[in-house]
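Schema walkthrough. Field components (list of strings):
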Amino acid sequence: MAKRSSGLSWLAVLGGTSFVLVALSVAMIFLYAPADATQGDVQRLFYLHLPAAWLAYVSFFIIFVSSIAFLLRGTPFWDRLARSAAELGFIFTTLVLLTGSIWGRPIWGTWWTWDARLTTTLILWFIYLGYFLLRAYITDPERGARYAAVLGIVGFVDIPIIHMSVRWWRTLHPQPIVVRSEGPNMPTEMLVTMLVTLVAFIVLYLFLLIVKYRIETVRDAVLELRAETAN
Amino acid sequence: MWGQLLAILYRDLLSEWRAREVVIGMLVMALLTLLVFNFAFDLTGAQRAASGSGAFWVAVVFATLLGLGRMTARERQDGAWEGLVLAPVERSVIYVAKLLSMVLFVAIVELVALVVLAALFDLPVLRPGVLVVLALGTVGLCALGTLFSVMTAQAKAREVLLPALLFPLAIPVVIGGVRAMMLELSGAGAEAAPWKSLLGGFAVLFGALSVLTFGVVVEE
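Field assembly_structure (string):
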């Protein structure tokens, strides 16, 4: 029990740090960073959008690595890690699509455009959805973990191919003229805000990943106990 | 190994020949999809090479999905799948045999659908380039489809799960297939080369990946 309580306090420090960093970055986004000369205040969404996009893809990479490790080792650690990363990845992918859409409306004049990056991210969102459905619909947890690992590997390998095919598809197709330059150089204030937000998101991500991992561990234990009492 | 492969292939083809439910069902699905598309979009105008290719590939994807579902349902009858898995055969051989029979069934459907497409929408479909595009795309689609159909065979909502897994991951096949076929049909076959290599690469990559992971999927 002593080990457990010290772990909890360590986690509390990480949680507190992420809270402070996120609060700092929100303050910087609204108070420190200047309004964009051409885009105005909407540009402030970009500070959330970029870290969310990175973490959405990082999550899938974690799933990929854990899936390979799980198939090779078969230890529950890797499966739980993949499960935790999948849930966070789905949340961040949703966040990317939502912030992008809100930003796109005033800047591009449309909620959605079939640009290569947007389309790939949308497909990534659907792959995450399929991943959850697979886990939910396969009742045997051991089998579900194996199948999810196969999907994690196949899906990750597919993402660059999807991106490539969508990019070719767009270039071979007339494209609406999309102005999306942020201007040639970013002011220092913007860059600093960006970096602080990025660090805040990474720390928050680590915190959430560990918390989620613990929840998954407890859930596994509950399922095991339930199976034992049923027998 | 080749003997085992042919034996499983023979088993699948024989049971299909006796029941005749997979290919017929797929064919009806594909033709009805083309019919419905005719009302949804203009398939006879100047843009018909583009819209016809799109309608054709959607019909093929739907038919493949239906066929995979029927094949899985048949394996579940009378312990057929358990018998196959208990046989002293490498898992990868089972996978390749399943893939080949599925490719064969889809190919039959595609050939009939092509003739219908040519007749109804006045498209010059009988070109070697079109057949190459179909062959490459079909192998890629069935490579992932066969893997996923075995994975979803024991799931609660199979018919929901299979498309949820297959559609997003098969998008390169749909994009590549539609684009390459459109270029072939509009006489610009030379421009279709990058798309053909995309389809071929997809088929090889996911065929190999499925062979590698199939042992994990049927580990009982």
